[in-house]
Fold these 2 entries.
Entry 1:
Amino acid sequence: MSYEIRVELLGLGDELLLGLRENSHLVHIGDKLAERGLEIDYAQVVKDDPEEIKRFFSESWSRSGLVITTGGLGPTADDITRETVSEILGLPLVFNDEILAHVEKRFERSNKTMPETSRKQCYVPEGAEILLNQFGTAPGLFVQKDDKLLVMLPGPPRELQPMLQNQVIPKLEELGILHDSESYVGFRTAGVGESSLEERLDEITEPIDGLRVAFCANQGLVDVRLSSDDHERLPLERLKEIGHECRQALGHDFVSFGHPSLARVVFRTVRSLEKTLAVAESCTGGLLSNSFTDIPGISKVFAGSVISYQNDTKIQLLDVPDVIIQQHGAVSAETAVAMATGAAERFSADYTLSVTGFAGPDGGSRAIPVGTIYIGYCSPVGVWSQKVVFHGDRQSIKRRATTAALDWMRRKLFKYKAEELVASGVDAD
Amino acid sequence: MSYEIRVELLGLGDELLLGLRENSHLVHIGDKLAERGLEIDYAQVVKDDPEEIKRFFSESWSRSGLVITTGGLGPTADDITRETVSEILGLPLVFNDEILAHVEKRFERSNKTMPETSRKQCYVPEGAEILLNQFGTAPGLFVQKDDKLLVMLPGPPRELQPMLQNQVIPKLEELGILHDSESYVGFRTAGVGESSLEERLDEITEPIDGLRVAFCANQGLVDVRLSSDDHERLPLERLKEIGHECRQALGHDFVSFGHPSLARVVFRTVRSLEKTLAVAESCTGGLLSNSFTDIPGISKVFAGSVISYQNDTKIQLLDVPDVIIQQHGAVSAETAVAMATGAAERFSADYTLSVTGFAGPDGGSRAIPVGTIYIGYCSPVGVWSQKVVFHGDRQSIKRRATTAALDWMRRKLFKYKAEELVASGVDAD
């Protein structure tokens, strides 16, 4: 694959350079295009200064076949992209009534009068196609000139993302610049570091000419992307086969094709078993529950959660016996197990996951330092606990503990799925 | 302020362009430098290709007084920054024993032998200062040449961030490139849109020559940054005064100087009252609790939380009367209030915040559509409920509802602080 077209991204806005706002466009647009076989070659962020925009846009335009700009299309004084770009392209700005009607309608809907400054947004480079903005006033623009393409998108992600998906990608597909289907195979792994994963997969991937393997490690997970330098020799079907070989080789360290969250993988399995799930968490403080409740449809299996920051809560809301906390401490395998079984009973849930530990920076002792986490898991066939230790700051320990708990449950579910199906009276498949 | 030095950032790595990994360096480095009066003028992301690195690095080096690179310093084959850059600077690579000792020690500590490929990391451009990496093997580099500065930092944020803070910033300070104290005044507002905030502040800020005002809106909050074009005429002290005038003008819409989370502002107030706090949440599913538990030291005031995804849970763990849910529904002002009072009792907490609503995409009805949220709040002086409606996807509704609940509690706390101090027998100050 790899179309012979150079793609560059140009982000606009002082706020990105001053560290006021994260630039999330590169990762989003990069992923959406790569999914369809088009890779971004270069990206830049330029400040709201006409001379800078002129310089870097014209260089980018002369180098590339496709330039995508983000931001700078609003009505305020520092939004000068439209003017600068039309000057460089040699296309005069013309007033567009369709945009005016759209902007006026949006102001009407919120019972406001359109300010005069908003008329600025109605000017477009001559010949540009308008991408109407469903979630804001600034339209996107699509310009074809000198066998090159310019796509201009508004800055706010909730305006940009649907415009990219619903208007830009179909247009690029029509023009034959994007594949009409996915063009790489991605999968997610857990519990293996990036370099040892690379080693384990080398045997499969190295002998294959033209195969590209990219890794991205994040919070205990590593995502792998298999793509091809030559779509004829290594078509998507072949990439899928290679993906399946990797899956075989990795066993339970293979999480899923695509990159679903671990919570989603657990959710799918529990749903397929027609069972329910509850959570009891202490040091992760809602993060574990939140990773479940981000999933649409989770309410079918998720009963709820108790966040027990104090011993009293563990005793009163989760029925952890006082004596267990006295004897073993709140951060112990015994308490983790009691939290899991208590939650199972209180929520009448088939599966429960519990976490107790010290996320720091305070708490902990010499014997049980900050970063010590006990995970508890209760299923129809038994109860388990596991200890893990992490280093890092509070938020990072919370994230790592959440990932560890979810991954552990995923492995347990996978391993005992058949047994549990039998235990719960459902025919195993 | 604004030193007369052009600053450019150059990020390296295919994974950033393929959408495999978020580039979080720009926002982090941008903020850290701006805090001390140095603004990034331009940023770019370049792929791991020697020709591309050569081209874009040399252009950047010729334009700028300070270039900061991120990534590409590792031991693998695609880490070629060191080689390419030293070629352009005309500085030969020399082997550095200090780095070797450091890398070997790190491998020893984890009982591994250093692989031969890691020797690559021990070569540095002649004359470069080494920035030892506390959290990884790849050292950072600090090069002064032709009255210009080059800072090369490793890619992983947990390696880059401490190196920037502890080694790079002190060096830039010593060289007089950074102010030795903070050089802007930032504050956070809530409940006002960006454009009407700008209007309200114009009266104060517009007459002041040389004052720069930057806005950044995010999830219902707007951050404002006041900085100065001329440090002599508008010193930090004057910026602080202007900040205080803005605070007066904004009343309760002013959240705080700096940019603490709303949860932190609420936490500080509750802690100053020596009271405790609990949460009962349904549709926000742990996000509200999690925003509290991200705060170090929260365990002093936070008792815990119940996440009640089902009516049974609301009834059994929060003592919401069955009849209230029957009569008014689970998404109603009455249920929100009952959840808040139930949690207050169960957790023996002085303050409780509750949220119930439909985050979608399913659920809801014609009368109570997806996005409808009821917030409940219970304090020593009373119980309240408020309805809010948001549009967007599930995660965005969860975030907006969490922000709304926290901001509402913040306003209530602020308004009733004196009364509550009296009610609870503490002398009001």
Entry 2:
Amino acid sequence: MPLAAVDLPRAYRLLNHGPVTLVTSADGERRNIMAAAWAMPLDFDPPKVAVVIDKSTLTRELIEASGTFALNLPCRAQAKATLDVGSISGRDLAGSDKFAHFGLATRAGTAIAVPLLEGCVGWLECRVISEPHNQGRYDLFIGEVVAASADTDVFRDGRWHFEDAPETKRTLHYVAGGAFYVTGESLDLGD
Amino acid sequence: MPLAAVDLPRAYRLLNHGPVTLVTSADGERRNIMAAAWAMPLDFDPPKVAVVIDKSTLTRELIEASGTFALNLPCRAQAKATLDVGSISGRDLAGSDKFAHFGLATRAGTAIAVPLLEGCVGWLECRVISEPHNQGRYDLFIGEVVAASADTDVFRDGRWHFEDAPETKRTLHYVAGGAFYVTGESLDLGD
């Protein structure tokens, strides 16, 4: 897969259209992955993101311990995996983890010690900006994006180009109950 | 247009798939509308939302004065209007406002004194939960959804049904520079 770094001031564009995300996290040898539909850009440069991470999750524990997380953007080919990783808790896989359990390949983050899910089409590596009130009251985490990358088949020159690529590489928008919408037709009213 | 209230515990589903929003606001006789792509659900019940509102905007001034705002969900037929309302500031329209300037019809909110944009396909009426630190540092506003409604051609039984309705009623996902993606194909992996 053709992969390239995304300039940080353009990193918000990976998330601007509201796709579902997969949150990866790690603390030492422990690592996890979960789905999160509630994620959005929060600033351009330096780029920041906001994401909701429930208190009950292993992901929450790993993020609070390490101060890092990554938002991976799954594509249509990964819809089932996106549901799968939300179907169990990493805490229930003693001696293993969801990556091994579901056969999910990863590569190392470039700026943080968090695995990135292969086969995704975009990745935002983030360091938590500690906001205990938001985390405690709203389960809301704010992260600064310290590295970003994308599959150049679908994201290049600072924007998405789904229309030139296989349908299987389109991003997903989560509805509920196992249902998604695939990112659809491009509508360009710009100059 | 067939319009119905949305039960509050399902209101998050209006926003779950990451559509662009139009933020309407009012304080007394003054009223405004702006586009915001950075909005997401924050809680289920009572439903909350998070949205980024820049300090420079008239919308920000009106929201801080009234403690209320609405998120309107524009559809494909409103793509140009969505760009139009972002092209000027309400402050530059002395004695008028963007609704009059662009010929945008509204109806009254049901729970808050904020206009709702006609022709949209979903509406979330919100009261600000005051969080001065988030508002000051991140331009981040948290609102409790106190009423929600939708066009039943595309949202009924607590979920979107774009596939049965005209293409013009699909929601939009903002990219940058006047470009959107339309909400695309449904992909249902649920039971």
